Protein backbone atom coordinates (compact mmCIF):
# COMPACT_ATOMS: atom_id res chain seq x y z
CA UNK A 1 0.00 0.00 0.00
CA UNK A 2 1.42 3.40 -0.89
CA UNK A 3 1.92 6.04 1.79
CA UNK A 4 -1.03 8.31 0.93
CA UNK A 5 -3.40 5.30 0.93
CA UNK A 6 -2.00 4.09 4.25
CA UNK A 7 -2.44 7.54 5.77
CA UNK A 8 -5.96 7.73 4.45
CA UNK A 9 -6.77 4.40 6.07
CA UNK A 10 -5.27 5.44 9.45
CA UNK A 11 -7.13 8.75 9.29
CA UNK A 12 -10.38 7.00 8.33
CA UNK A 13 -10.04 4.52 11.23
CA UNK A 14 -9.40 7.42 13.61
CA UNK A 15 -12.31 9.45 12.25
CA UNK A 16 -14.61 6.45 12.91
CA UNK A 17 -13.48 6.53 16.52
CA UNK A 18 -11.31 3.44 16.14
CA UNK A 19 -8.57 4.77 18.43
CA UNK A 20 -6.43 2.34 20.38
CA UNK A 21 -4.87 3.72 23.54
CA UNK A 22 -2.29 1.83 25.56
CA UNK A 23 -4.07 -0.24 28.23
CA UNK A 24 -2.07 1.25 31.10
CA UNK A 25 -3.40 4.75 30.34
CA UNK A 26 -6.70 3.64 31.81
CA UNK A 27 -6.23 5.40 35.15
CA UNK A 28 -5.15 8.61 33.46
CA UNK A 29 -8.32 8.54 31.36
CA UNK A 30 -10.39 7.85 34.51
CA UNK A 31 -8.81 10.89 36.16
CA UNK A 32 -9.70 12.88 33.06
CA UNK A 33 -13.33 11.77 33.32
CA UNK A 34 -13.43 12.47 37.04
CA UNK A 35 -12.25 16.01 36.34
CA UNK A 36 -15.18 16.42 33.95
CA UNK A 37 -17.56 15.58 36.80
CA UNK A 38 -18.87 18.80 38.40
CA UNK A 39 -19.08 16.98 41.75
CA UNK A 40 -15.46 15.86 41.57
CA UNK A 41 -13.83 16.09 45.01
CA UNK A 42 -10.14 16.40 45.72
CA UNK A 43 -10.37 13.38 48.06
CA UNK A 44 -11.61 11.11 45.28
CA UNK A 45 -8.97 12.47 42.94
CA UNK A 46 -6.18 11.83 45.45
CA UNK A 47 -7.44 8.25 45.82
CA UNK A 48 -7.42 7.73 42.07
CA UNK A 49 -4.04 9.38 41.63
CA UNK A 50 -2.48 7.25 44.33
CA UNK A 51 -3.11 4.23 42.13
CA UNK A 52 -1.01 5.69 39.34
CA UNK A 53 2.55 6.33 40.62
CA UNK A 54 3.74 7.96 37.40
CA UNK A 55 0.95 10.52 37.44
CA UNK A 56 1.36 11.12 41.20
CA UNK A 57 5.05 11.78 40.70
CA UNK A 58 4.31 14.23 37.91
CA UNK A 59 1.76 16.11 40.03
CA UNK A 60 4.28 16.54 42.84
CA UNK A 61 7.05 17.46 40.43
CA UNK A 62 4.90 20.13 38.75
CA UNK A 63 3.69 21.51 42.09
CA UNK A 64 7.32 21.95 43.16
CA UNK A 65 8.55 23.38 39.84
CA UNK A 66 9.73 26.99 39.61
CA UNK A 67 6.69 27.76 37.49
CA UNK A 68 4.22 26.78 40.24
CA UNK A 69 6.43 27.28 43.26
CA UNK A 70 8.45 30.45 42.73
CA UNK A 71 8.82 30.82 46.51
CA UNK A 72 10.54 27.46 46.86
CA UNK A 73 8.11 25.96 49.42
CA UNK A 74 8.23 22.24 48.78
CA UNK A 75 5.09 20.07 48.96
CA UNK A 76 5.15 16.32 49.52
CA UNK A 77 1.48 15.31 49.57
CA UNK A 78 -0.91 14.94 46.66
CA UNK A 79 -3.81 16.88 48.14
CA UNK A 80 -1.80 20.06 48.60
CA UNK A 81 -0.05 19.51 45.29
CA UNK A 82 -3.43 19.40 43.48
CA UNK A 83 -4.55 22.51 45.35
CA UNK A 84 -1.43 24.32 44.20
CA UNK A 85 -1.48 23.39 40.53
CA UNK A 86 -5.29 23.36 40.09
CA UNK A 87 -7.55 21.05 38.13
CA UNK A 88 -6.62 22.53 34.75
CA UNK A 89 -2.95 21.69 35.17
CA UNK A 90 -3.90 18.26 36.52
CA UNK A 91 -5.91 17.70 33.36
CA UNK A 92 -2.85 18.64 31.30
CA UNK A 93 -0.69 16.21 33.26
CA UNK A 94 -3.10 13.32 32.80
CA UNK A 95 -3.09 14.03 29.07
CA UNK A 96 0.70 13.97 29.19
CA UNK A 97 0.59 10.45 30.65
CA UNK A 98 -1.62 9.24 27.82
CA UNK A 99 0.48 10.96 25.14
CA UNK A 100 3.72 9.78 26.68
CA UNK A 101 2.51 6.21 26.76
CA UNK A 102 1.42 6.41 23.14
CA UNK A 103 5.13 6.89 22.52
CA UNK A 104 5.82 3.29 23.47
CA UNK A 105 3.00 1.70 21.46
CA UNK A 106 5.03 0.90 18.38
CA UNK A 107 6.82 -2.44 18.21
CA UNK A 108 9.41 -0.98 15.87
CA UNK A 109 12.52 0.44 17.66
CA UNK A 110 13.14 3.03 14.94
CA UNK A 111 9.58 4.27 15.26
CA UNK A 112 9.87 4.38 19.05
CA UNK A 113 12.98 6.53 18.60
CA UNK A 114 11.00 8.94 16.41
CA UNK A 115 8.25 9.00 19.05
CA UNK A 116 10.81 9.73 21.79
CA UNK A 117 12.08 12.69 19.80
CA UNK A 118 8.50 13.82 19.27
CA UNK A 119 7.93 13.72 23.04
CA UNK A 120 11.01 15.88 23.56
CA UNK A 121 9.58 18.36 21.06
CA UNK A 122 6.22 18.17 22.86
CA UNK A 123 7.70 19.05 26.26
CA UNK A 124 9.39 22.11 24.75
CA UNK A 125 6.20 23.27 23.05
CA UNK A 126 4.03 22.72 26.16
CA UNK A 127 6.44 24.59 28.44
CA UNK A 128 6.91 27.45 25.98
CA UNK A 129 3.16 27.63 25.33
CA UNK A 130 2.46 28.14 29.04
CA UNK A 131 5.01 30.95 29.22
CA UNK A 132 3.87 32.62 26.00
CA UNK A 133 0.24 32.46 27.16
CA UNK A 134 1.17 34.29 30.35
CA UNK A 135 3.57 36.84 28.92
CA UNK A 136 2.66 37.33 25.26
CA UNK A 137 -0.84 36.30 24.23
CA UNK A 138 -2.53 36.73 27.65
CA UNK A 139 -4.28 33.38 27.38
CA UNK A 140 -4.98 30.89 30.15
CA UNK A 141 -1.53 29.39 30.87
CA UNK A 142 -2.93 26.02 31.94
CA UNK A 143 -5.03 25.74 28.79
CA UNK A 144 -1.91 26.53 26.77
CA UNK A 145 0.06 23.91 28.70
CA UNK A 146 -2.62 21.31 27.97
CA UNK A 147 -2.76 22.34 24.30
CA UNK A 148 1.02 22.03 24.04
CA UNK A 149 0.97 18.55 25.53
CA UNK A 150 -1.67 17.28 23.12
CA UNK A 151 -0.60 19.22 20.04
CA UNK A 152 1.12 16.19 18.49
CA UNK A 153 -1.37 13.49 19.48
CA UNK A 154 -2.15 12.82 15.85
CA UNK A 155 1.52 12.33 15.06
CA UNK A 156 1.99 10.00 18.04
CA UNK A 157 -0.95 7.98 16.85
CA UNK A 158 0.45 7.85 13.31
CA UNK A 159 3.79 6.56 14.61
CA UNK A 160 2.06 3.95 16.76
CA UNK A 161 0.30 2.58 13.67
CA UNK A 162 3.20 2.96 11.23
CA UNK A 163 4.64 -0.51 11.79
CA UNK A 164 1.65 -1.96 9.98
CA UNK A 165 2.59 0.04 6.88
CA UNK A 166 6.26 -0.61 5.99
CA UNK A 167 8.10 2.40 4.59
CA UNK A 168 5.49 4.88 5.78
CA UNK A 169 7.90 6.95 7.87
CA UNK A 170 10.99 6.35 5.79
CA UNK A 171 10.19 8.05 2.47
CA UNK A 172 11.35 11.53 1.58
CA UNK A 173 8.01 13.03 0.63
CA UNK A 174 5.62 10.32 1.71
CA UNK A 175 4.07 12.49 4.41
CA UNK A 176 2.58 14.98 2.00
CA UNK A 177 -0.90 13.66 2.69
CA UNK A 178 -0.21 13.85 6.42
CA UNK A 179 0.69 17.52 6.24
CA UNK A 180 -2.36 18.13 4.09
CA UNK A 181 -5.47 16.94 5.87
CA UNK A 182 -4.24 13.71 7.49
CA UNK A 183 -2.83 15.21 10.68
CA UNK A 184 -5.95 17.24 11.32
CA UNK A 185 -8.26 14.25 10.65
CA UNK A 186 -6.41 11.94 13.02
CA UNK A 187 -5.69 14.68 15.55
CA UNK A 188 -9.38 15.62 15.83
CA UNK A 189 -10.35 12.03 16.48
CA UNK A 190 -7.69 11.48 19.16
CA UNK A 191 -8.50 14.79 20.87
CA UNK A 192 -12.15 13.76 21.00
CA UNK A 193 -11.20 10.48 22.63
CA UNK A 194 -9.15 12.43 25.18
CA UNK A 195 -12.12 14.74 25.96
CA UNK A 196 -10.02 17.81 25.13
CA UNK A 197 -11.81 21.09 25.94
CA UNK A 198 -13.40 22.94 23.02
CA UNK A 199 -10.96 25.84 23.41
CA UNK A 200 -8.05 23.45 22.88
CA UNK A 201 -9.74 21.86 19.88
CA UNK A 202 -10.19 25.34 18.37
CA UNK A 203 -6.53 26.15 19.03
CA UNK A 204 -5.49 22.97 17.25
CA UNK A 205 -7.49 24.02 14.20
CA UNK A 206 -5.47 27.25 14.14
CA UNK A 207 -2.26 25.23 14.46
CA UNK A 208 -3.23 22.92 11.60
CA UNK A 209 -4.29 25.92 9.50
CA UNK A 210 -0.81 27.34 10.04
CA UNK A 211 -1.57 31.07 10.08
CA UNK A 212 -0.44 33.18 13.02
CA UNK A 213 -2.26 36.45 13.71
CA UNK A 214 0.08 39.40 14.12
CA UNK A 215 0.22 40.43 16.87
CA UNK A 216 -0.40 36.92 18.24
CA UNK A 217 -3.41 36.81 20.53
CA UNK A 218 -5.32 33.51 20.60
CA UNK A 219 -4.59 30.12 22.12
CA UNK A 220 -3.93 28.86 18.60
CA UNK A 221 -1.42 31.68 18.05
CA UNK A 222 0.24 30.63 21.31
CA UNK A 223 0.67 27.09 20.00
CA UNK A 224 1.97 28.24 16.62
CA UNK A 225 4.55 30.47 18.25
CA UNK A 226 5.65 27.83 20.75
CA UNK A 227 5.95 25.31 17.96
CA UNK A 228 8.11 27.68 15.94
CA UNK A 229 10.32 28.57 18.92
CA UNK A 230 10.84 25.03 20.23
CA UNK A 231 14.55 24.22 20.00
CA UNK A 232 13.69 20.60 19.17
CA UNK A 233 11.45 20.39 16.15
CA UNK A 234 9.02 17.63 15.30
CA UNK A 235 10.88 14.67 13.78
CA UNK A 236 8.03 14.29 11.30
CA UNK A 237 8.86 17.71 9.87
CA UNK A 238 12.46 16.55 9.46
CA UNK A 239 11.29 13.40 7.68
CA UNK A 240 9.34 15.49 5.27
CA UNK A 241 12.22 17.78 4.20
CA UNK A 242 10.67 20.63 6.13
CA UNK A 243 13.36 20.64 8.76
CA UNK A 244 15.16 23.64 10.18
CA UNK A 245 18.17 21.32 9.97
CA UNK A 246 19.22 21.96 13.52
CA UNK A 247 19.59 25.70 13.06
CA UNK A 248 18.74 27.77 16.10
CA UNK A 249 15.60 29.86 16.05
CA UNK A 250 16.47 33.52 16.11
CA UNK A 251 13.01 34.85 15.81
CA UNK A 252 12.27 38.26 17.22
CA UNK A 253 8.89 39.69 18.04
CA UNK A 254 7.82 42.97 19.41
CA UNK A 255 5.36 42.50 22.27
CA UNK A 256 4.18 45.85 23.52
CA UNK A 257 7.43 47.39 24.71
CA UNK A 258 9.21 44.10 25.25
CA UNK A 259 10.99 41.78 22.89
CA UNK A 260 10.48 38.07 22.72
CA UNK A 261 14.19 37.47 23.26
CA UNK A 262 14.15 39.25 26.61
CA UNK A 263 10.99 37.43 27.74
CA UNK A 264 12.50 34.06 26.86
CA UNK A 265 15.79 34.90 28.58
CA UNK A 266 14.03 36.00 31.78
CA UNK A 267 11.90 32.87 31.84
CA UNK A 268 14.43 30.20 30.91
CA UNK A 269 14.30 28.66 34.43
CA UNK A 270 10.52 28.52 34.43
CA UNK A 271 10.43 26.76 31.07
CA UNK A 272 13.15 24.33 32.12
CA UNK A 273 11.30 23.47 35.35
CA UNK A 274 8.14 22.63 33.42
CA UNK A 275 10.09 20.43 31.01
CA UNK A 276 11.62 18.58 33.94
CA UNK A 277 8.19 18.02 35.46
CA UNK A 278 7.06 16.38 32.22
CA UNK A 279 10.24 14.35 31.64
CA UNK B 1 2.52 41.81 -9.10
CA UNK B 2 -0.64 39.90 -9.98
CA UNK B 3 -4.21 40.24 -8.86
CA UNK B 4 -6.33 37.20 -8.09
CA UNK B 5 -10.07 37.85 -7.91
CA UNK B 6 -11.92 36.15 -5.09
CA UNK B 7 -15.60 35.92 -4.24
CA UNK B 8 -15.19 37.86 -0.99
CA UNK B 9 -12.09 39.91 -1.60
CA UNK B 10 -9.48 40.71 -4.16
CA UNK B 11 -6.00 39.27 -3.60
CA UNK B 12 -2.94 41.20 -4.70
CA UNK B 13 0.22 39.09 -4.74
CA UNK B 14 3.42 41.05 -4.18
CA UNK B 15 6.67 39.71 -5.55
CA UNK B 16 10.07 41.09 -4.56
CA UNK B 17 10.20 44.76 -5.50
CA UNK B 18 6.42 45.17 -5.80
CA UNK B 19 4.43 47.77 -3.91
CA UNK B 20 0.69 48.18 -3.39
CA UNK B 21 -1.40 50.83 -1.69
CA UNK B 22 -5.19 50.87 -1.57
CA UNK B 23 -8.30 50.03 0.39
CA UNK B 24 -11.57 48.12 0.22
CA UNK B 25 -11.80 44.35 0.48
CA UNK B 26 -8.26 43.74 -0.69
CA UNK B 27 -5.83 41.18 0.69
CA UNK B 28 -2.15 41.76 -0.04
CA UNK B 29 -0.13 38.53 0.01
CA UNK B 30 3.57 37.92 -0.24
CA UNK B 31 6.30 35.39 0.48
CA UNK B 32 9.39 36.62 2.29
CA UNK B 33 12.90 35.32 2.82
CA UNK B 34 15.62 37.82 3.66
CA UNK B 35 13.44 40.56 2.13
CA UNK B 36 11.35 42.78 4.37
CA UNK B 37 7.72 43.81 4.08
CA UNK B 38 6.17 46.68 5.94
CA UNK B 39 2.40 46.87 6.22
CA UNK B 40 1.07 50.36 6.89
CA UNK B 41 -2.58 50.76 7.85
CA UNK B 42 -4.75 53.78 8.60
CA UNK B 43 -7.22 52.52 11.24
CA UNK B 44 -9.81 55.25 10.69
CA UNK B 45 -9.85 55.32 6.87
CA UNK B 46 -9.07 51.60 6.54
CA UNK B 47 -6.55 52.15 3.79
CA UNK B 48 -2.96 51.10 3.64
CA UNK B 49 -0.25 49.40 1.70
CA UNK B 50 2.63 47.03 1.72
CA UNK B 51 6.13 46.96 0.23
CA UNK B 52 8.50 44.06 -0.33
CA UNK B 53 12.09 45.23 -0.60
CA UNK B 54 15.27 43.22 -1.08
CA UNK B 55 18.00 45.69 -0.10
CA UNK B 56 18.27 48.94 1.78
CA UNK B 57 19.29 51.19 -1.11
CA UNK B 58 20.83 51.27 -4.57
CA UNK B 59 24.60 51.47 -4.68
CA UNK B 60 24.27 54.77 -6.56
CA UNK B 61 21.37 57.20 -6.51
CA UNK B 62 19.25 57.14 -9.65
CA UNK B 63 16.98 59.67 -11.31
CA UNK B 64 14.84 56.91 -12.73
CA UNK B 65 11.44 55.80 -11.52
CA UNK B 66 11.29 54.57 -7.95
CA UNK B 67 12.27 50.94 -7.65
CA UNK B 68 10.51 48.96 -4.89
CA UNK B 69 13.37 46.46 -4.64
CA UNK B 70 15.20 49.05 -2.55
CA UNK B 71 13.91 50.01 0.88
CA UNK B 72 14.78 53.68 0.55
CA UNK B 73 12.67 53.91 -2.61
CA UNK B 74 9.80 51.77 -1.32
CA UNK B 75 9.58 54.18 1.63
CA UNK B 76 9.30 57.11 -0.80
CA UNK B 77 6.41 55.28 -2.50
CA UNK B 78 4.68 55.06 0.88
CA UNK B 79 5.20 58.76 1.48
CA UNK B 80 3.82 59.62 -1.97
CA UNK B 81 0.63 57.67 -1.28
CA UNK B 82 0.31 59.14 2.18
CA UNK B 83 0.50 62.63 0.67
CA UNK B 84 -1.94 61.76 -2.15
CA UNK B 85 -4.53 60.54 0.35
CA UNK B 86 -4.13 63.70 2.44
CA UNK B 87 -3.03 61.71 5.46
CA UNK B 88 -0.04 61.96 7.77
CA UNK B 89 2.60 59.27 8.36
CA UNK B 90 1.83 59.31 12.10
CA UNK B 91 -1.81 58.38 11.39
CA UNK B 92 -0.71 54.92 10.30
CA UNK B 93 0.16 51.76 12.22
CA UNK B 94 3.07 49.70 11.02
CA UNK B 95 3.79 45.97 11.11
CA UNK B 96 7.17 44.75 9.95
CA UNK B 97 8.11 41.26 8.77
CA UNK B 98 10.92 39.25 7.25
CA UNK B 99 14.67 39.68 7.28
CA UNK B 100 15.29 35.95 7.69
CA UNK B 101 18.74 34.51 7.27
CA UNK B 102 17.66 32.18 4.50
CA UNK B 103 20.69 30.01 5.12
CA UNK B 104 19.45 27.24 2.87
CA UNK B 105 17.25 28.72 0.24
CA UNK B 106 19.50 31.61 -0.72
CA UNK B 107 22.99 30.21 -0.48
CA UNK B 108 25.75 32.66 -1.22
CA UNK B 109 23.87 35.68 0.05
CA UNK B 110 25.28 37.42 3.05
CA UNK B 111 23.33 36.46 6.18
CA UNK B 112 23.49 40.11 7.26
CA UNK B 113 21.19 41.26 4.45
CA UNK B 114 18.11 40.35 6.44
CA UNK B 115 19.34 42.19 9.54
CA UNK B 116 20.20 45.30 7.53
CA UNK B 117 16.80 45.23 5.84
CA UNK B 118 15.09 45.06 9.24
CA UNK B 119 17.13 47.93 10.62
CA UNK B 120 16.51 50.28 7.72
CA UNK B 121 12.77 49.57 7.91
CA UNK B 122 12.70 50.40 11.62
CA UNK B 123 14.68 53.57 10.96
CA UNK B 124 12.22 54.74 8.31
CA UNK B 125 9.31 54.24 10.71
CA UNK B 126 11.11 56.03 13.53
CA UNK B 127 12.10 58.94 11.26
CA UNK B 128 8.45 59.50 10.32
CA UNK B 129 6.93 58.83 13.73
CA UNK B 130 4.99 55.84 12.50
CA UNK B 131 4.24 53.53 15.45
CA UNK B 132 5.52 49.99 14.98
CA UNK B 133 2.84 47.91 16.68
CA UNK B 134 3.99 44.46 15.71
CA UNK B 135 6.94 42.78 14.09
CA UNK B 136 8.05 39.25 13.35
CA UNK B 137 11.57 39.27 12.04
CA UNK B 138 14.78 37.25 11.77
CA UNK B 139 14.83 33.50 12.08
CA UNK B 140 15.56 31.12 9.29
CA UNK B 141 13.37 30.27 6.35
CA UNK B 142 10.36 31.85 4.77
CA UNK B 143 7.26 33.66 5.82
CA UNK B 144 3.98 33.86 4.00
CA UNK B 145 1.97 36.97 4.76
CA UNK B 146 -1.61 38.07 4.20
CA UNK B 147 -2.56 41.67 4.96
CA UNK B 148 -6.30 42.42 4.93
CA UNK B 149 -6.83 46.09 4.16
CA UNK B 150 -10.43 46.15 5.39
CA UNK B 151 -9.45 45.10 8.93
CA UNK B 152 -5.71 45.76 9.18
CA UNK B 153 -5.23 42.12 10.18
CA UNK B 154 -2.00 40.41 9.22
CA UNK B 155 -1.79 36.61 9.06
CA UNK B 156 1.55 34.91 8.94
CA UNK B 157 2.60 31.35 8.13
CA UNK B 158 6.05 29.85 8.45
CA UNK B 159 6.53 28.00 5.22
CA UNK B 160 9.64 25.87 5.41
CA UNK B 161 11.60 23.92 2.86
CA UNK B 162 13.72 24.71 -0.08
CA UNK B 163 13.16 25.72 -3.65
CA UNK B 164 10.09 27.07 -5.37
CA UNK B 165 7.74 24.49 -3.90
CA UNK B 166 6.75 26.02 -0.64
CA UNK B 167 5.35 24.17 2.33
CA UNK B 168 3.51 25.52 5.28
CA UNK B 169 5.14 24.33 8.45
CA UNK B 170 1.71 23.25 9.60
CA UNK B 171 -1.42 22.63 7.69
CA UNK B 172 -2.20 22.69 4.02
CA UNK B 173 0.27 23.21 1.23
CA UNK B 174 0.78 26.55 -0.37
CA UNK B 175 2.57 27.53 -3.47
CA UNK B 176 4.38 30.82 -3.03
From TrEMBL, chain A:
Residues 21-210 form the HDOD domain. Gene3D superfamilies: Hypothetical protein af1432. Pfam families: HDOD. It comes from the Bacteria. InterPro entries: HDOD, RNase_Y/CdgJ. This is HD-like signal output (HDOD) domain, no enzymatic activity. It comes from Propionivibrio dicarboxylicus.
From TrEMBL, chain B:
Its EC number is 3.5.1.44. Coiled coil: none annotated. It catalyses: L-glutaminyl-[protein] + H2O = L-glutamyl-[protein] + NH4(+). GO terms for biological process: chemotaxis. Keywords: Chemotaxis, Hydrolase. GO terms for molecular function: protein-glutamine glutaminase activity. Probably deamidates glutamine residues to glutamate on methyl-accepting chemotaxis receptors (MCPs), playing an important role in chemotaxis. Belongs to the CheD family. This is Probable chemoreceptor glutamine deamidase CheD. It comes from Propionivibrio dicarboxylicus. The gene is cheD.
Amino acid sequence: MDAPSALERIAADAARGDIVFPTHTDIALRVQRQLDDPDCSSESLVKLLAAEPLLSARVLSLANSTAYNPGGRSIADLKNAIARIGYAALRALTASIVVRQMQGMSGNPAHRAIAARLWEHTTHVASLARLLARRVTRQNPDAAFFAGIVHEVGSFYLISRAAAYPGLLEGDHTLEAWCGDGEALVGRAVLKALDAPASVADAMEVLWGGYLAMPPSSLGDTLLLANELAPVESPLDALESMSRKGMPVELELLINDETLTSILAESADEVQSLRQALA
Amino acid sequence: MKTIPNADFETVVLHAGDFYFGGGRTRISTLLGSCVSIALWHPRLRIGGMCHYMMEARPRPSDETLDGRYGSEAFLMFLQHITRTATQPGDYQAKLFGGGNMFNAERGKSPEIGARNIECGKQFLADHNIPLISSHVGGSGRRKLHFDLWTGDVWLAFPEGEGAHVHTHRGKRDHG
